[in-house]
Amino acid sequence: MAGNLPPMLQWMVDATIRARGIRDPQVLRAMETVPRQLFVRPEDASEAFSDRALPLGLGQTISQPYVVALMTELARLSPGDRVLEVGTGSGYQAAILAECGAEVYSIERLPELAEKARQRLAELGLVVHLRVGDGARGWPEHAPYRAILVTAAPSHVPPELLEQLDLGGRLVVPEGGREGQVLRVYRRTEEGFEVSDHGAVLFVPLR
């Protein structure tokens, strides 16, 4: 499929995702399939394939492609896995998760962003269950989740999210304040949680 990609999308996947070590075939396929340019503001279209976060307005951003790919790979998904996303934003991360075959539930606190994301996802034919609300509380009605991805940074992981994680499931979260955040994975075990760190990141705060 890669040979038929639009040139800039091909460059994005090869130069900023494969070249930085992302190897999961389903993640790479999803990054090749979802048109990132549809998830940025029209005035930022020329930067859609650059490896950096871009503003969405309302104090929110769309994450850089590499970070989206890394968080998805760290979730270690299989088709049909139920996934919770906290912070829908543009809908791009949710689209990648859905393209990987996950059953996606996504929460956005800002109604304007949620509605735009809903429209984009519907236009692409991607099924994502979307609601407006406080993502820090999760979506307990559909728990447990095989993976939870948090796309804004809490100073500490809300306990409600950890409680909604399935046994063996993984919560991927940028944890910390503006002075320093770490991309962290919490894996639920019978004894508690195994925690691993995966590099420094910078996300907007979780509110």
Structure description:
The chain has 207 residues and is α/β, with parallel strands linked by helices. The protein has one domain: 3-Layer(aba) Sandwich (Rossmann fold). It has six helices and nine strands; from the N terminus they run ααββαβαβαββαβββ. A seven-stranded mixed beta sheet has the order 5-4-3-6-7-8-9. It has a two-stranded antiparallel ribbon with strand order 1-2. Strand 8 and strand 9 form a beta hairpin. 43% of the residues are buried.
Summarize the structure.
The chain has a single domain (2-201), classed as Rossmann fold.
Topology of this protein?
Blueprint: H1 7-16, H2 25-33, E1 54-57, E2 60-62, H3 65-75, E3 82-86, H4 92-99, E4 103-108, H5 111-123, E5 128-132, E6 145-150, H6 159-163, E7 165-177, E8 180-189, E9 192-201
Parallel strand pairs: 3-4, 3-6, 4-5, 6-7
Antiparallel strand pairs: 1-2, 7-8, 8-9
Helix pairs in contact: 2-4
